[in-house]
Amino acid sequence: MSKTALIIIDMINTYEHKDADLLIPSVESVVPVMADLLRRARDRGVPVIYVNDNFGEWRSHHGEQLEQALAGPRADLVEPVKPDGDSLFVLKARHSIFFETPLSYLLTEQGIDRLVLTGQVTEQCVLYSALDAHIRHFDVVVPKDAVAHIHADLAEAALRMMERNMGALIRESHQLWA
Amino acid sequence: MSKTALIIIDMINTYEHKDADLLIPSVESVVPVMADLLRRARDRGVPVIYVNDNFGEWRSHHGEQLEQALAGPRADLVEPVKPDGDSLFVLKARHSIFFETPLSYLLTEQGIDRLVLTGQVTEQCVLYSALDAHIRHFDVVVPKDAVAHIHADLAEAALRMMERNMGALIRESHQLWA
Amino acid sequence: MSKTALIIIDMINTYEHKDADLLIPSVESVVPVMADLLRRARDRGVPVIYVNDNFGEWRSHHGEQLEQALAGPRADLVEPVKPDGDSLFVLKARHSIFFETPLSYLLTEQGIDRLVLTGQVTEQCVLYSALDAHIRHFDVVVPKDAVAHIHADLAEAALRMMERNMGALIRESHQLWA
Amino acid sequence: MSKTALIIIDMINTYEHKDADLLIPSVESVVPVMADLLRRARDRGVPVIYVNDNFGEWRSHHGEQLEQALAGPRADLVEPVKPDGDSLFVLKARHSIFFETPLSYLLTEQGIDRLVLTGQVTEQCVLYSALDAHIRHFDVVVPKDAVAHIHADLAEAALRMMERNMGALIRESHQLWA
Lengths: 178, 178, 178, 178
What we know:
Four copies of one chain form a homotetramer.
Chain A: E1 4-9, H1 20-43, E2 48-53, H2 62-71, E3 88-92, H3 103-109, E4 114-120, H4 122-135, E5 139-143, E6 147-148, H5 152-165, E7 169-171
Helix pairs in contact in A: 4-5
């Protein structure tokens, strides 16, 4: 039997990086959808794993990252999707959630073989993470209204690549844990 | 100073896999361009590295792969771009040229920090390899007429992703080693 | 020119695990030596990187680990070698400091090519980390009075393996940053 | 149910490297034992996987390596344990059979979770491979009369490390597939 985890990518964020202006409108539409999805996942005991860039901050940890994001100007985009006491954490240094992180080890330890990928950016980290999941034989589901993009046309191409070439299921969030 | 290698992806091929029909017309246009590029690279002593899928054949090696491809119905697509005595080889088991292969180790050993990616498929292995090169801080150049695609629109999106999000230079082959 | 980092392995510890009884006498002799070494490294601006097991705690982070260790019965073994505001952190899930961690990426980013390995356990994590450093072409120095063992005879064999087969320099702590 | 493979490390060898003189007497005693073990494994359909260093030869493949070894002065140490048509191959560039090789992928694909490690050198590649297998949760068995050493005392310490710290079973060859 398949065991699923909900993965939340790079949502602990101060939104001060390059391209944030292009990204924010998409994040604004994603946050309420993701908050609902998170609630349904938690209600059913689905493991929730936050995988977040450390933004080169090898001194800080995820607690400090969260504090910073909640103290920042766009706390409204972080508060509704923030971790609770059961959330698991993996810090990443580069784009993919798998690159030089213990995620693959954590998933295997917990018997998880199916990932629901949400967060940002559809045509970047989400695409790369879907690829790295597929290469490692994890099944991938992407709720297309729970991933945020910078460029709509590249995001659309990325979703088609995931579906056609990485065996990903592309869904609406309301279809999951309904 | 930067040192460059020419990478030839998945061109040792019998063209009997799924989607080969969609791929072959693109390969037919790429092969003569790649043959020219290969000649210019060899003339200048640029290292040429073939990275090829083993297609699950853990018994055979690259010599047998080449023999099989040259004995197949589309030897005409392999003969002009085949390895010579100086070529280096890396076998891969999955999509990316870096995933569980010694390529990164080989490149570092030889002081190579810049990759010219050619071969197939633009919106699959070439895209994934460009990403994995970028994540590892190798510079990437893609001569867009020396990469073959299955779907023209996804290939076009893949080239834009490589340029915009992975810092790749997209070029015409005649611009390289001119 | 070579750039060195001081690596502190698994010293943020509550000492409640299996074999702790055998380990503690060795740690007691190591802590004051390591505290001196740490001070000299900090005085000279040598980067100090703590690499610590997460002990399967995917919920907690290094801040919480440290609090727990400092609240435990053997805080006296943690307090003298605890991180300061400049320390860098990498969490590991398994024995080697490199296995599915971003350490290799961090070191390369910072131009570090030489590691002074300290901490515990000489014939386990220190040995494995020396091997994984050597395989990745980092130079290794082990101050033999700043590493703690469970079994003295295996520790002695481990030090000889590191010296003979992994090109490590085995030194006394007072020889470093003297 | 557990599925086992027999792993043969670095036995395709011309014995011209550093330390060969110290190694050869041990190999001479190991070869007939390993030949018997190989025969029993083949009789029972146990997968046999040769993992061999490429010795920096990125041009050649395992067929050429074998030819060279069989044409060399110590062909007598290679002939009795050479691969047959069913053998699988993985080339490695560095010490461990797992480091930047597709071995982990191959084993998982084939449902193999238990490795019988044989070959050379007990206190080097065999030890490192046992560690990397253990870290990845493969079970390890080492038939101590089918592994060759350079230094008897370090080999003995390595076997104790594998048994005590890596959960390996240390056996006599005749106990396997008896």
